[in-house]
Design goal:
The complex is a heterodimer of chains A (235) and B (292). Chain A is of the alpha/beta class and 235 residues long. Chain A has ten helices and ten strands. In chain A, the strands form two sheets. In chain A, strands 6-7-8-3-9-10 form a six-stranded mixed β-sheet, sandwiched between helices. A four-stranded antiparallel β-sheet of chain A has the order 2-1-4-5, with helices on one face. In chain A, helix 3 packs parallel to helix 6. Chain B has a domain of 198 residues. Chain B is globular, with a radius of gyration of 19 Å. The chains are: A alpha/beta (235), B mainly alpha (292). Chains A and B meet through helix 2, helix 3 and helix 6 of A and helix 6 and helix 7 of B.
């Protein structure tokens, strides 16, 4: 479904992504793990069109999307839950969800989908009139995910959904991610919490200082000595 | 008491005009963090468009207002595209200096074409007077206040209820997140300039009719005062700009009425200094912190 080939991204003189190549097949959860500053967020931002690729190809369902604007990429079915959630704090929960459906024109369907989000995330239904900035961290994460789903994406990019959340909530968020995947949405998940990420991922890539260092199935990587040592706290 | 009420009436009509100009300042600041110093000059050009429409085309108040608003909106979009957009990723000081340059450019282009002299509007609104006990109310003041209120209601509707209004709010809070929703940031910025400039154009026509004199440098002082109004209300905040405009208008008329009209400009700028010392974020300025 998604294929990244030899992607290079620079921030000024800093070479943030070095010949990154990866694939995500339809229906998969693929995770990209790595330390702080490895280039995980840069990869997602480049996929969404917020950063420009210096060279390389991004192919979605057979078509190159490297020259598409961020807005057009949402239109063709890529949606992102950004790092730090980035909900609109001075808007209500409902308005945030409506913005998620910004490019859609099917008003009655949008209404139905909002109701569906309230089923998926009951807490959002209870707080629909509340300013999003007053929600707790976990609730904001759910809102950010619901907002991203409102565009009806084929490919959902998740950037550190577990950041700053209590362990119990992290588990809940990961269960929701699995559910979203089961209903047919392909997921590319970026995480620092490697253990959780590997436990739900079909396949995984390890990013080290801008390069893909390793790849394999979630299980394989979870067992690998190197990963144990570097990311999972084992000896 | 009569004196007080009289100044109140005058202050509200003057303040309405400041509020209209302040809205453009605050909206543009909200979306691209730029103090658009050319904004006062768009107001000046709006006044000249109103003048041309009423004098040469012999149209009435409402057509003059609408034509001026539309042309100013287009001018605002062009200025943004030509002068500010190429600097979108430059330092803020570069854009600010460009804005000052744009302001001078508009002033002296106008001076070249229309001359430096003062011109006066034809009589398009009745200049009849009302008396409520000893207070005089001019018909034109009523027009100013009604026009301002109508425009503000429309603006509130656009910002809060329409899709493009939501896009404006989203872009002004978080450009990246707005893009992830599929919002086109450039179009949204153009739209914001269009609305802000249209309001300035309306203010220009109202002032032209009320004071009956316009010149190419008329935008400087009201522009600065509207800027003070926007800062007082909390820059980036729309209701704040409305309140700020009224407060500055009232302050100015009360200083002229009770003190000395020589000091009215000084009073406004002294007020700016006091705000910046006491509450730099302004009356309704937000200081929301992000939860992490």
């Amino acid at each position: 479904m998604l294929e990244i080939k030899n992607l290079n991204v620079y921030y000024g003189v800093i070479h943030a992504l070095k010949n990154v190549s990866l694939t995500v097949n339809k229906g998969e959860i693929v995770t990209l793990i790595g330390a702080n500053g490895a280039g995980k967020t840069t990869t997602l931002r480049t996929l969404s069109g917020l950063n420009k690729a210096t060279s390389g190809e991004i192919i979605l369902e057979g078509k190159s999307i490297v020259n598409l604007s961020a807005s057009n990429r949402v239109e063709i079915g890529i949606s992102q839950v950004p790092e730090g959630r980035r909900i609109f704090p001075q808007m209500s929960v409902l308005e945030n969800l409506e913005l998620g459906a910004f490019l859609r024109k099917d008003k009655s369907e949008i209404k139905k989908d909002i109701e569906h989000m309230y089923e998926l995330f009951p807490i959002l239904g209870k707080r629909k009139k509340q300013m999003a900035g007053t929600l707790s961290g976990g609730e904001q994460q759910m809102l950010a995910m619901a907002r991203a789903l409102m565009s009806k994406p084929n490919l959902l990019l998740l950037d550190e959904p577990s950041m700053g959340l209590a362990p119990l909530l992290v588990r809940e968020i990961f269960d929701i991610i699995k559910n979203i995947n089961m209903t047919g949405t392909t997921i590319l998940l970026v995480e620092q919490n490697a253990k959780m990420a590997l436990s739900i991922a079909h396949r995984a890539y390890v990013l080290e200082t801008g390069k893909i260092a390793m790849s394999g199935t979630g299980e394989e990587l979870a067992k690998s000595d190197e990963i144990q040592k570097s990311y999972l706290g084992g000896n | 008491m009569d004196q007080f009420l009289q100044q109140l009436v005058n202050g509200i009509s003057l303040g309405s005009i400041y509020a209209l100009i302040a809205l453009g300042y605050t909206m543009v600041y909200g979306i691209i963090k730029l103090i658009n110093f050319a904004h006062g000059d768009i107001y000046m050009i709006g006044a000249y468009i109103g003048f041309a429409v009423t004098t040469y085309a012999k149209l009435g108040f409402v057509p003059a207002l609408i034509i001026s608003m539309v042309l100013c909106a287009i001018l605002g979009i062009i200025i943004e595209k030509v002068a500010y957009k190429p600097l979108r990723n430059s330092s803020r000081i570069a854009v600010l200096i460009t804005a000052i340059g744009m302001s001078l450019l508009l002033e002296y282009i106008m001076m070249f074409f229309v001359g430096a002299g003062v011109r006066s509007f034809p009589k398009v609104l009745s200049d009849s007077l009302f008396y409520i006990s000893n207070i005089t109310i001019k018909m034109q003041q009523i027009y100013i206040v009604i026009t301002t209120v109508v425009l503000m209601v429309i603006l509130q509707f656009i910002v809060n209820k329409t899709k493009i209004g939501k896009a404006m709010r989203a872009v002004s809070t978080d450009k990246d997140a707005a893009q992830l929703m599929g919002i086109k940031v450039d179009n949204t910025i153009s739209f914001t300039f269009a609305i802000g400039s249209a309001l300035a154009g309306a203010a220009g026509v109202l002032v032209g009719i009320y004071y009956n004199s316009i010149d190419p440098l008329m935008g400087m002082m009201p522009g600065l005062k509207a800027f003070v109004a926007a800062v007082f209300g909390g820059i980036g905040n729309i209701p704040g700009a409305m309140i700020g405009g009224l407060v500055i208008g009232l302050l100015e008329t009360f200083v002229s009425g009770y003190g000395n009209s020589m000091y009215r400009d000084a009073a406004v700028f002294a007020f700016l200094i006091i705000i910046l010392i006491i509450k730099p974020s302004g009356l309704l300025g937000k200081n929301t912190k992000e939860k992490v």
